Input
Amino acid sequence: MRKSMMCTVLALGFALGGCALFGGNSSVEEEAAPQQAEAAPAPEAPAAEEAAKGKTGADKKAKKKAEKKAPSRGAKTEAQIAAELEATGRKLAAQAGRTLVPSKAAKQVSRDGADFVATYVEVDAGQVRTEMRPGTSAGQYVGFVRYQEKFMECRGKSKKDALAAPCRQVKTRNLTELIRYDGKSWHY
Output
């Protein structure tokens, strides 16, 4: 008796209300659907206009977040590390050029017989070369930054003439700086 009553209740429930497990609908939902269909086109028009203009604000924010997070994921490639070495090497050579004494702005003047000689040292920024080799541990590298120091000399009959005279290169010194990569950045 209980089984037959339970089956009857279930059969009536499925027949009248539909089965939620199988996507059944009730008659109340069917009546509400046409009203929603009429209201739906209004919000779609602004969406079409936004698509014509470009991406929505939420899409732009999501894209910016993805771009910011993308480089931080995973380890850097050797090409990225080599590019960082190149930039760091140029920065190191530029710093060396700014700190050299005597410099082009503050030449050192000395007497050479009857003439005066103004000398200074400059770094040839166009000749900076870098090389990268693997370090002792995985993800660590040793970088070689090679550049030239040029010794310049200007001659004149007086101190003032020597400072104003055109200069010529008299000597070149090749320098190699060793820097290391610890897995995050280059250190010198």
Q: What stands out?
A: The beta strands are 108-112, 115-123, 129-134, 141-156, 167-181, 186-187.
